[in-house]
Design goal:
This protein is an alpha/beta fold and 397 residues long. The protein has two domains: 264 residues, TIM Barrel (Alpha-Beta Barrel); 99 residues, no CATH class. It contains 15 helices and eleven strands. The strands form two sheets. It has an eight-stranded parallel β-barrel with strand order 1-2-3-4-5-6-7-8, surrounded by nine helices. It starts with 5 loop residues before the first helix and ends with a helix. The structure holds 3-hydroxy-3-carboxy-adipic acid and copper (II) ion (CU).
Length: 397
């Protein structure tokens, strides 16, 4: 039999030689903009270490928010991590100076370029915005920094001005340009068109920073990749302003399995990373959250249990261990004969057909919903169950 995902992979039609898509994690910048999130410096440093060990390419943090943050940036930069540490701030010389004072090698500067941001937020003209952007990039370059420039609210900016701006900062020597959908208003084809427009006019490497206001963030991030972006912004569990941005877990799993993008991610850390953030923020990811959610690998309906017990790939796209999660089966009124029979075998009962049917019916008639959940690993748990049964029968002998 072919790999169970073989035909799906054909539809996904990844390239023979897939390009590497990089990940910038912004848990320490965008993530801290999520209501209820405020890390201590010790936590920030630990999160940076873990993200680096996981294998992200860049870690973003803002030193201009507070003195505490500035200290955190300095300390994290001193750790000599593999990932670039990107020091994020406004498109102002004074913010670049703060990055410099932290000994940063990479900085990021953002400036709103949509009419509403220019007129009502910044109260500057397009010309002034252009001047400010170019000056910021030139200033950073003159001080030996690598700089990413974010054309904030770019998806709502007048396209000609967007291109003019991108060309001007490219000319000034910018190292990357972040194309954000700041208010999460794009659908995937729209994001594709937005990125494609810029990609056709500038050669600078592009980032996608996309918000999840209507639930399209993850899809938009990948539409942006299809259009030529080579770095996606994430946060652990997708935390960020309002409804946040794509989650690191979903992005890294999709890159690995759906895009076959070459990387060294330690995917088995994903659930631990999620738990770490849960512990530091008391924001619990909802149970059906992809990859890391507590229900992401639970199987319940009788027909599913019957299949899972034979071959878990029947109802799982990726094995749970791969992403640090665990498979569980849920017994209750939906368990069916196979579920009942398995439950009986775990309890050490003989499981003839008639009794299994009776137990399945009993579970249904109880009308108490889900009664118990047990972990079920590929071989391990089955072995334990068998061993225990062995011991029991010896005891009984
Ligand atoms: C912000 C805006 C930003 C910047 C994105 C980026 C956005 O909160 O500062 O720098 O790539 O969504 O536009 O997060
Ligand atoms: Cu953002």
């Amino acid at each position: 039999m072919k790999n169970p995902n073989y035909y799906a992979d054909l539809y996904n039609s990844y390239d023979k030689d897939p390009k590497k898509i990089r990940v910038l994690d912004s848990t320490l910048r965008e993530g801290e903009q999520h209501p209820g999130v405020s890390f201590t410096n010790k936590q920030r440093i630990q999160i940076a270490w873990m993200l680096d060990y996981f294998g992200v390419d860049q870690i973003e943090i803002s030193p201009v928010v507070s003195n505490d943050h500035k200290e955190a940036v300095k300390t994290i930069i001193k750790q000599g991590l593999k990932a670039d540490i990107v020091s994020h701030g406004r498109a102002l010389k004074e913010d670049i100076d703060v990055s410099l004072s932290c000994d940063a090698k990479w900085c990021a500067a953002y400036l709103g370029i949509s009419d509403i941001h220019l007129k009502d937020k910044l109260r500057i003209t397009r010309e002034q915005a252009m001047e400010r952007a170019v000056e910021t990039v030139e200033y950073a370059k003159a001080h030996g920094l690598k700089i990413r420039f974010t054309v904030e609210d770019g998806s709502r900016a007048e396209p000609e001005f967007l291109i003019k701006m991108c060309k001007a900062i490219e000319e000034a020597g910018v190292d990357r340009i972040s194309l954000p959908d700041t208010v999460g208003i794009m659908r995937p084809i729209g994001m594709y068109n937005f990125v494609k427009k810029v990609r056709g006019q500038v050669n600078t490497p592009l980032d996608a920073h996309v918000h999840n206001d209507i639930g399209f963030a993850l899809a938009n991030a990948f539409a942006a990749c299809d259009a030529g972006v080579d770095q996606i912004h994430t946060t652990i569990d997708g935390i960020g302003e309002r409804t946040g941005i794509p989650a690191l877990a979903e992005v890294s799993v999709a890159l690995t399995f759906l895009f076959k993008s070459p990387n060294d991610f330690r995917l088995d850390m994903l659930q631990d990373l999620s738990r770490l953030i849960e512990g530091y923020t008391s924001i619990k990811p909802y149970d059906s959250k992809p990859v890391v959610g507590s229900s992401a690998y639970k199987h319940k309906a009788g027909t599913h249990l019957a299949a899972i017990l034979k071959n878990p790939a029947a109802y799982e796209p990726i094995p749970p261990r791969t992403v640090g999660n665990r498979r569980r089966i849920v017994f209750g009124e939906l368990a069916g004969k196979t579920g009942a029979s398995y439950l009986m075998s775990i309890l050490g009962l003989d499981k003839d057909n008639e009794s299994a049917k009776a137990v399945a019916l009993g579970l249904k008639n109880l009308r108490m919903g889900d009664l118990i959940e047990i972990p079920l690993e590929d071989r391990l748990e089955k072995k334990i169950i068998n061993d225990e049964k062995g011991e029991k029968s010896e005891e009984n002998d």
